[in-house]
Amino acid sequence: MGAMTPVGGTLPETWAGLLAGRSGVAALEDEWAATLPVRIAGRVTADPADHLSMREFRRMDRCGQLALIAAREAWAQAGTPGADPERLAVVIGSGYGGLGTTLAQARVLDNAGARRVSPHTLTQIMVNGPAAWVSIDVGARGGARTPVSACASGAEAIVQAAEMIRSGAADVVIAGGVDACVNELTISGFAQIRALSTADGDPAKVSRPFDRDRNGFVIGEGAGILVLEREDFAVARRAEILGRIAGGAITSDAHDIVAADPAMQERVMQKALDQASLTGADVGFVHAHATSTPLGDRLEAGAIAALLGDQVPVTSTKSMTGHMLGGAGALGAIVAVQALRTGRLPGTLNLENPDPEIGLNVIGAAIDCSAAGAGMTNAFGFGGHSVSLVITGG
Hints:
The protein is an alpha/beta fold and 394 residues long. Helices cover 35% and strands 18% of the residues.
């Protein structure tokens, strides 16, 4: 596994930050942010330029940069599996792709004319760019796919990757999600629909899933990448198995372009449990989608309680990273794997006044979860995209 997040530039740094309850949300000091209605965000802690060659850095949008760096970390941790290139694939989801480049080059076009537009523009703005760059980097010829399902993109990529392996289409799949949308257009757009928090004060205290005083999410950026393998392939090469994707489900609400359908959230979780041949009683914890919006957190809480009961430990690391959009679901899967491996589940930062309407066992600090045999992680996106994963230990 590999990660670039607002609390760490690598997976070990990210995990240490999450367990410690360290926020990656800070004020935006950029000139372009001065007039925005919201001026806080979660940016990755590492500079991509420090991890890439100058040629790579110049050819890629920030979205592709974060994905490639996290993928290289995951690939190295996996021991660079010697898979047949024809049976090695990549599935990396993104909600917005190279939106940062789109904005920057539109300004160049307006201010300096067509001849000043970068020749790399089109390959930088492609939403499939991160998957393509990673496939080139490892020589994967079994397919390079890009689910585009808003904030569910990273989790959907993992489900698709697992399906490729189960169907026999691939032996190894590099999967995950990424977004790099800390820019004036995304922040303004989310602010206009009142999705972002407008709270004043310490930026680190603004993202507060399940808390009574939450009033919107904080935008973040980052990438989470996992290397999935067919089990007998991993065993044959004596790989360290970190965890298992026991079940994964994708549904569409067919309800509203923005508002979620709680009945479908419960349904996607049940479908994931069914595929894993488990029941709600087998789930030791839930990493919730919970972004810190008043309605969204309450709807998901109701679905969790209806299916799993109100005593299962629930957490949301978006309280520390902000909402990484297409990267969020992949990081959720990584958190679940890490929790099962280490026996520690990160808490929900800023849970100072638990919302009485939530009615769940939301944890405010890291707890022991060594008795958990399975964890569930959810990801929901605009358009009615719902994804749930059930993960078991290695």
